[in-house]
Amino acid sequence: MPSQSVEAATRDEAIAAAREQFGPTARIVGVRRIRSGGMFGFFTNERFIAEVEVPKADPVKGPDTGSLLKIGAREARPAASLDDRMQELAELLDHADRMNLSPVLVCSPQVRAALSRLVRQVLPRLSVISYNEVSRTAQIESLGVVSGAYAVR
Fold this sequence. Notes:
Distance between the termini: 17 Å
Order of helices and strands: EHEEEHEHEE
Strand content: 25-35%
Number of domains: 2
CATH topology of the largest domain: Rossmann fold
Helix content: 25-40%
Structural class: alpha+beta
Shape: rod-shaped
Radius of gyration: 26 Å
Low-confidence stretches: 58-62, 73-77
Mean pLDDT: 76
Largest sheet: 3 strands, antiparallel
């Protein structure tokens, strides 16, 4: 993580300035007191420098714990939007309805929780399960594959 610093007149002001300048994701690793000038310890200037570690910028924001799901493309492919993925799912769901099937979206266990929360907002009747939750005796017919989504670690 790149390191930065902020200077202020008091310790609390240095910490507040660091949080204001670098945001809530910045980590304050220490505050140094610097004395300069003066004579024999009298008339010195006292300043405080907050040392801050700023995390590398990441386009994905999410919870502090759990899995994240990035919808879109990796660098080599053209970008795909969340709306495109939800439209794909809606079309597959309509296709399953026309065939009188009860569709479920099957995904990896790592993205199941995040994907389930996402899908529930747009397509509440579509169930999301992980590969681990599928019974060995279940008969599964694949109606399609939603592309452009991958787990972020």
